[in-house]
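Summary for the steering committee. One of the milestones for this cycle was to obtain a three-dimensional model of the protein with EPU bound, which we needed before selecting residues for the alanine scan. The sequence and ligand used are listed below.
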Amino acid sequence: MDKLLITGGNRLSGEITVSGAKNAALPILCAGLLTADDIKLSNVPHLQDVSTMIKLLQQMGLRADRDAEQVLLNGSAVDKLEAPYEMVKTMRASILVLGPLLARFGEAKVSLPGGCAIGSRPVDQHIKGLQAMGAEIAIEAGYIHAKAKRLKGTRVVTDMITVTGTENLLMAATLADGRTVLENAAREPEVTDLANLLVKMGARIEGIGTDRLVVDGVERLHGASHAVIADRIETGTFLCAVAAAGGDVTLSNTRSDLLDVAMDKLREAGAVLTSGPDWIRVQMASRPKAVSFRTTEYPGFPTDMQAQFMAVNSIADGVSRVTETIFENRFMHVQEMNRLGAAIVIEGNTAIIDGVEQLFGAPVMATDLRASASLVIAGLAAKGETMVDRIYHLDRGYDRMELKLRAVGARIERVKS
Ligand code: EPU
């Protein structure tokens, strides 16, 4: 297993190009199942999760040709309507094939995702929505077996806001008979990006970007071209890296309007942020100030940025409180940060962070994707060497992170096992 060796203390300066969003690319690749025509995608990030999704789709008979950041999909020969456990267990987002397969082929067999490091993450809302649309669903031997001659439009109110649940139901609704209204829909920019592609494919969707999506089903969808939106979480991760290590970095190929709340919090922490239509510049000259926040659905503070901000708070001046409201077990980075000298205690779903003047390098272990990113940030700010183990988590969701950080002056290298 590869590790990252970080020697902290360098300020960061220069330019980083942000990649396309993982959590937009994954559902968008699955939208290729909805049509027999070509879908041309650009700005697709180089990530393990994207490779896993492409492999899964290819197993189903979808043609997927990749050339750098471009992927050409063709769904004319899809014939295997199954997502096996071996794939789903490595990537929960595999559940996103369920809606498109059922909508276009009237049948799907998808393994139930198992447990997850950050919370239990059931998919009951995906199932409830598809059942409301007339699907017959049986759970047998760990698999969801779904059937429907043609899904029927209806009103679906999910019990909670779910990102991939909204995406699955949205894709299903595009080919359903009649009007589907998705209430309590997720408003994350990645849902909007998927919806924009679906409209280019001929879907009739209103309310894009709101919590009420109205979809009038069509008989068939056609081909389209689409550029995946910028990764707001990768963007925010690099902003936090500069806030923690100090420096002056410009992020290009990204958008500040995708992360308003996180940017406000960074300003509160003392960062100077300026932006244009496709870039953000961050300057940090002093020790950060402690900032408190609670995670919520978009447009609130993203749970996927919680760990990275905690790394900034760990060396900030003052005491902060961070409350996680989306996932029940997303504080696994806390024990590792404390190994670097942070002073963080957990009370229920709140972490109380007493900022220390200095972290000190140590071996730490990554437990999930965003926790890994937070440990890299802490390592950049720490004195001495930090070895981050199990970085396969990081490779799942960050496109060549160590190369991008090295280009702005970080001392970070991959140690191959
Ligand atoms: N939930 C249910 N039942 C469901 C669906 C969700 O109880 O049927 C619960 C979940 O357990 C969780 C909450 O609802 O407590 C929200 O979960 P959601 O379904 O929104 O999460 P997700 O769709 O599985 C996506 C991202 C995550 C991100 C969350 C929240 C993708 C592929 N994944 O997951 O990204 O944290 O939304 O914004 O889009 C990451 O990139 O590191 C990551 C974990």
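Key point for the committee: The chain has a mean pLDDT of 97.
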